[in-house]
Amino acid sequence: MGKRYNFEAIESKWQKYWDEKKLYKTVERDDREKYYVLEMFPYPSGNLHMGHVRNYSIGDVVARFKKMRGYNVLHPMGWDAFGLPAENAAIKHGTPPSQWTWRNIATMKEQLKGLGLSYDWDREIATCHPDYYRWTQWIFLQFFKKGLAYKAKSAVNWCPSCNTVLANEQVVGEGWCERCGTVVKKRNLEQWFFRITDYAEELLRDLEKLPGWPEKVKTMQRNWIGRSEGVEIHFRTEDGDPIPVFTTRHDTVYGATYLVLAPEHPLVEKLTKGTEYEEPINEFVDKIRQMDYIQRTSMELEKEGMFTGAYAINPLNNERIPIWVANYVLMEYGTGAVMAVPAHDQRDLEFARKYELPVRIVVQPQNGEELDGDSLKEAFAEEGISVNSGPISGLPTAEAKEKMADYIEEKGLGERKVNYRLKDWLISRQRYWGAPIPIIYCDHCGIVPVPEEDLPVYLPEDVEFKPTGESPLKYSSEFLNTSCPQCGGAAVRETDTMDTFVCSSWYFLRYTSPRERDHVFDKDKAEYWMNVDQYIGGVEHAILHLMYARFFTKVLRDFGYVSVDEPFQNLLTQGMVLKDGAKMSKSKGNVVTPEEIVSEYGADTARLFILFASPPERDLEWSDEAVEGCYRFLNRVWRLVTGYADDLKEIGNFDNYSLNNS
User: Fold this and answer.
1) DSSP characters for 530-592?
2) 412 and 279, same structural domain?
3) Whole-prediction pTM
């Protein structure tokens, strides 16, 4: 037995043994308590780096520990395999996305196996495999049947570089595309949506059922859902067109001196069409739509607007107030219409001063200070005493809000309402490499779902990519042209594919019975394993993936397929691996691959460093010296144990570990 820790011989020997003995294969057992540990599955980009290794090593430690404690452990691995990078690689290098993806999967699988991770590879899945996306399409059809999937025209986020729409959650920073960093534009398009807003209240409320989640993640989800209680007041145009306005400060409604519409509001075109305001308003709207999301919501934004030439009627006092379009109002919030109360809202005040609009005080401070609308330099947005406000004059703000809400409802002028920042999930993507949306368009029958027995709608692989970046499905006659399932006439398929987050919103359920042929998953096996006891992944998925997975779980529960309310009982968001002070990435050229470390020091050294160099929740700075230190430590452990091997055998039966033959 050598004095040096011979990792090449030892690791290859035991990894081979584990494979041959199917040591990590998992089946349902009634005699042991189950434990489901899962790391967020990777996108098959071609190579793992040490940031990936950290995520998977943490999960592996948990899985091994629970297995040693006698639990029946499920620890699967798979591939989040659809997505834009494969398509971009196809356009750039002429490699079909399927070939690029499956080649990368093979490479990354070998890397994971070389790290000695305890996965049940018999449960491996890939979201781009027809056996998987067949059921993604099936789930879409269930949503469609229940009214949770619908098509609508909407102002959407458009990435001109990726040539596709983005969900609100995929617009980051100062209005950039999450994937490529291009400034996002606005377009009006017909798109497919999921009604996640139907579950907004439950998504918010059930965060209380998750004490095992980091508080920062729950706070991020609460803020994104953005629940607010207020009143929707029925303003109207002089011609009688309704303009519902949601406000949380309905106690200030008597102070509304103008009304503001978002540029995307459908009334803007109707109010200005055929008038002298039409052309300048259209030019202004086009200009504002080019602005990014962050700019338009910034308090530092210079407020700009235009008068539409139309007027609204305030239902509380029947006052005629001008209707404006402004850059600081968005359709994504409330109803896309705002009653402007400049004395008590800073943005409204800045706008009013710029365009010389009236400022009316309707709340005075409780300290006796008298505010004057003509000289007011800063909006008074705090609580106070209502004045000049009809039935609530003289009341403190809290009492005034309640009485005004009652008054509005009694008079039929509006109703109490709960509003959410969360909007329905836009799932359409004008790209090729994704799960086809199983919808057919017939001139006679309209929108027709693909019959379940005809699933999957296969994604063709012999397509031609256009230099414009448009989806080749539009030009694939074999894919596009079909017959209507209802009337048998000529029809065409939907050419949009689904957002890849749809695929990753239920993969944890498929792991419970990945080879199930007749159902989305085996309900009994899902009942045995769900929910996931420990989920591990990056905090960057706190809003997107985690919100969507929670939504899918609740919908499938309501459909009767699962009984759990939440998919992930405990959540660990591990810190990033940094090198030279920056997150490891190919673009920065600071990636350290597992092969580099495993070939020189072995998998145990790589895992030891990645686990002990920093607490799992914190960022970890890469250090070559620390890696070498971990290798020296393992050699000391090796010498200590092998030096006393004979004595250890006398104490207990260690023959099964074959120390002398390692």
Assistant:
1) -SBSEEEE-GGGTTHHHHHHHHHHHHHHHTTS---S-SBSBEEEPPPEEETTEE--TTTT---
2) yes
3) 0.87
Of 436, 411, 543, 431, nearest to 494 by C-alpha is 436
Provide the domain count of the chain. 2
Residue 547's pLDDT band (cuts 50, 70, 90): very high
Task: CATH number of the domain at 239, please.
Answer: 3.90.740.10
CA distance 565 to 573: 21
Q: Residue 662's pLDDT band (boundaries 50, 70, 90)?
A: very low
Query: In the 3-class helix/strand/coil scheme, how is 184-220 assigned residue by residue?
Result: CEEEEEEEEEECHHHHHHHHHHHHHHCCECCHHHHHH
Residue 637 neighbours by CB distance under 10 Å: 13
Task: Give the residue from 548, 555, 277, 233 showing the smallest Cα distance to 404.
Answer: 233
Domain boundary among 361, 396, 420: 420
Q: Which domain holds residue 77?
A: 7-125+531-647
Token match 């308090």: residue?
Answer: 299
Same-domain pairing of 120 and 236: no
Report yes or no on 483 lying in a domain. Answer: no
Instruction: Please report which helix (H) or strand (E) contains residue 121, including its range.
Output: none
Does some domain include residue 662? no
pLDDT at residue number 661: 44
Helices (H) and strands (E) in the chain, counts: 21, 30
Question: Which residue shows structure tokens 């379940």?
Answer: 452
**Terminal-residue alpha carbon distance, the chain:** 8
Q: Are residues 412 and 274 in the same domain?
A: yes
pLDDT in tens, 183-220: 887 777 889 999 999 999 999 999 999 999 999 999 99
CA distance 386 to 375: 19
Phi-psi region for residue 173, left (φ > 0), alpha (ψ -120 to 50) or beta? left
In this predicted model, what pLDDT tens digit does every residue of 149-164 receive, in sequence order? Answer: 999 987 778 888 877 7
For residue 634, the domain's CATH number is 3.40.50.620
Which one, of 315, 161, 251, 215, lies nearest residue 539 by Cα? 215
pLDDT at residue 186 in the model:
75
Per residue, the 3-state secondary structure of 611-633, as one string, reads HHCCCCCCCEECCHHHHHHHHHH
DSSP state of 434: S
Phi, psi of 563 (to 5 degrees): -110, -10
pLDDT per residue as tens digits for the range 384-417: 999 999 999 999 999 999 999 999 999 999 999 9
On whether both 378 and 263 belong to a single domain, the answer is yes
- Which segment of 209-218, 237-246, 295-304, 556-565 scores lowest on mean pLDDT? 295-304
Nearest alpha-carbon partner for 225 in 422, 20, 509, 39 = 422
Reading the block at residue 495, the tokens are: 């050419």
Note the maximum CA span of the chain: 100
Task: Classify residue 482: in a domain, yes or no.
Answer: no
Helix (H) or strand (E) holding 368: none
Domain boundary among 377, 395, 420: 420
Position 611: which residue type? L
Alpha-carbon span 503 to 80, nearest angstrom: 7
